[in-house]
Amino acid sequence: MRIDIITALPELMASPLSHSIVGRARSAGIIDVHVHDLRAFGLGRYRQIDDEPYGGGAGMVLMAEPLFDCLESVMADDSDLQVDEIIYLTPDAPVLTQASANALTLRSRLVLVAGHYKGIDQRFRDAVVTMEVSIGDYVLSGGELPACVLVDALARLLPGAISDAESALTDSFQDGLLDAPLYTRPASFRGMEVPDVLRSGNHESIRAWRERMREERTRRIRPDLLED
Fold first, then answer.
1. Half-sphere exposure of residue 25: CA atoms within 13 angstroms, side-chain side
2. What is the pLDDT of residues 144-188, one digit of tens each?
3. Is it the case that residue 98 has pLDDT exceeding 80?
């Protein structure tokens, strides 16, 4: 999978994309991530990429021309690999779910557009964006961190990114439930005990206990998932 990211702040993304599972997946060639500096396509002497919104109001808006120019350059790079989705990271969009992350891993190439300031020119959204993604009902300073979140969510699902593939398949949300409580050694710590069933060696009892705990935890913390 190849992912291209258009951003006004490429340096903000360097660390999250270079470490842990994403960093290892990139080094292994499992995922190919390219970060493109929008300011390289800015206008005039000062490489302007933002301007005041028509009609007035607070905040600045990323301009259409640098966005289109940058995207056209990105799509011309490795043009033999078709772009499947152009995804705009923005709070006013459907929230990312595990199901949508799973579906995106079937794509070969994605372009992520990280909004900044107040947002981006609507004409770019209307003309080229094929999918919009939010990571939650709150506002950040820009779309760079959400783009990193999306890359991380996708990378860990790709074959070979995690040494134990079953780990990703049993994560919270994969089948609509939260994960069960997890314990490790020692069995007794400061008067707190690991449940006996987990030490029993009875795999069927352990499986049933975990399933029951998943349902109870989901009902207590995220009952909306059970309704869905």
1. 25
2. 999 999 999 999 999 999 976 556 666 667 888 999 999 999 999
3. yes
| Structural domains of the chain, with CATH | 2-155 (3.40.1280.10), 173-227 (1.10.1270.20)
**Percentage, residues of the chain above pLDDT 90:** 90
Question: Which sign, positive or negative, has the C-alpha torsion 25, 27, 29, 33?
Answer: positive
Q: Which pLDDT belongs to residue 217?
A: 96
